[in-house]
Design brief:
By secondary structure, the protein is mainly beta. Helix content is 12%, strand content 49%.
């Protein structure tokens, strides 16, 4: 996960109805995240042949919404890249998210306590690259840390073409993380993210880490105003 502090105005047009930008210690963050789906099942029980294991890279930011006194902290995806057209089409229909198909590949290597992770996706005739290098064992993020803020959002929100937004719950255990000793993004992805956001990604990230992941459940969404 590569995390960049940005001006709130850069994200304001992406904020779904009924939510407000979330912040950590008064700072707003944009994240570029690469990970693997493994043993994926629709509705938690229907495996899809040849589409159960695949990579994803998403560009996201963080919002919150009040519901019956509960402060729901959530994620909004600006763009999500997957390596199969059928996956992109299904996700667009089910959750209204901006999924895009691109050829993808990844590399994950572990040597002792060191870990190297890399995700690549092809935009036009060139490859973009997200990478991170860690050292030492993973740990639970400290209470009140930026790593905890980034990793522990359990709601998703997407703008709908009609009125309102789609809200859905995401369930998983808290993740352990390796803080990155080096990390970054390389490539030209303005056709995916626009010029302003692509310029942000070429900066050195303000925070980067690798999470160990876990089983994740995505529940049926509902429209909110």
């Amino acid at each position: 996960m590569l995390n960049y502090e940005v001006e709130p105005s850069l994200l304001s047009r992406y904020v779904p109805a009924g939510t407000t930008l979330d912040s950590f210690q008064g700072r707003t963050y944009l994240s570029l995240v690469g990970f693997q789906f493994c043993h994926t099942k629709l509705f938690g029980c229907l495996p899809v042949p040849f589409h159960a294991n695949f990579d994803e890279v998403n560009l996201r930011f963080y919002v919150r919404r009040k519901e019956d006194g509960e402060d729901r902290r959530g994620v909004v995806f600006i763009a999500e890249v997957v390596p199969r057209r059928a996956i992109a089409a299904t996700a667009r229909l089910a959750y209204g998210e901006n999924y895009r198909y691109c050829p993808m590949r990844h590399r994950i290597e572990t040597e002792g306590l060191s870990k190297a992770a890399e995700y690549q996706w092809q935009v036009g005739d060139q490859w973009c690259r997200l990478w991170a290098q860690t050292a030492g064992p993973p740990t639970r993020p400290q209470e009140g840390s930026l790593e905890q803020f980034i990793a522990e959002h359990y709601w998703g929100y997407s703008a709908r073409r009609t009125r309102g937004s789609l809200e859905y719950h995401v369930g998983h255990v808290p993740w352990r993380v390796w803080v990155a000793s080096g990390a970054g993004f390389e490539g030209e992805a303005s056709t995916l993210y626009g010029n302003e956001l692509s310029t942000v990604l070429r900066r050195r990230p303000d925070c980067a880490f690798v999470a160990d992941g876990s089983p994740v459940a995505v529940f049926t969404g509902r429209t909110v105003q």
